[in-house]
Structure formats: C-alpha cells, structure tokens
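Bench notes, afternoon.
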Amino acid sequence: MSNILKRKDSGFTIIEVLIVLAIAGLIMLIVFLAVPALQRNSRNTQRKNDVSSILSSVSEYVNNNQGSFPATGTFSTAFASSAPKLGYYTTAANVTWTNQTTAAAPADPADLDKVVVVNFAKCSGNTAVTAGATQRSVVALYDVEGSGGAKVAQCQES
C-alpha cells in the first residue's frame, strides 16, 4: 500500500503546458506590435536628421556666397559643392530647392520620400507661411510617418 502512495508522476500537466504557451503567445504579440513602431520611429528620426543636415548646408552655402541663394532645382544641382551625406533620402534628387524672391506659399511635399526646401518662408506649426519671413528665412517641408501609416506634415526652420 505504501508503494501506491509513493508513486511519482513525471512530466507536465496540460494546464502547465497551456500556461507556458499563453505566456509565450503574449510575449510574441508584444514583440510583433512593438517592432513596426520602433522601425517607424527610426525612419522618422533619420528623416529629421537629414533635414537638419540639409538646412545646415543651406546656411553654409549662403555664408560662403555673400548671402545669395542658388537657382531653383534639385538639391544636388543647387548645392553641388556642399551637399550633405543623407541617410534616409538616398538621393539628393528627393530634395527640391526653391529660391523664392517673392512671398508665395510653398508647396507641401507629395510623399514621404520628398523634402521641399524654400527660402522667404517661416514655420507656423507644421506649415510654412510667408508672413513675417525675410528673404534669408529658410524652411524645409517634409512628411513623417504617423501611427497607422498616416503622413504627418512637418516644417523645420534653419
């Protein structure tokens, strides 16, 4: 009779296995939800860093050329000698330069891979305005990714 009471079962019960699987499933769910947001934030940070580099190049060009801006065109042609190395915007053709001589509302870029750099404008929130801007005022208009894949307009001044 004592042998019956001392019987030792080996292995896991079904409840223990289900608990481990549920915990593993929760961990996988958290990872699959967090990774896209981290990737989106990384791309947005790279976009912002690129825009800062672009605006620095504009300031450097203006300082080196007695306050004059280059002609309108792509960034690579306008700033051929001082174009920065860009991370997200792989080609400088994605960056459009507009040398405005009059106050006109600059256009917002059409997609996430475009940046519009304009002088004679200032930022008002996430849009560019010309009210109160001087001819040496320079802004960059670009979009970043929001949650759910929505584009969020950004405006950054030099």
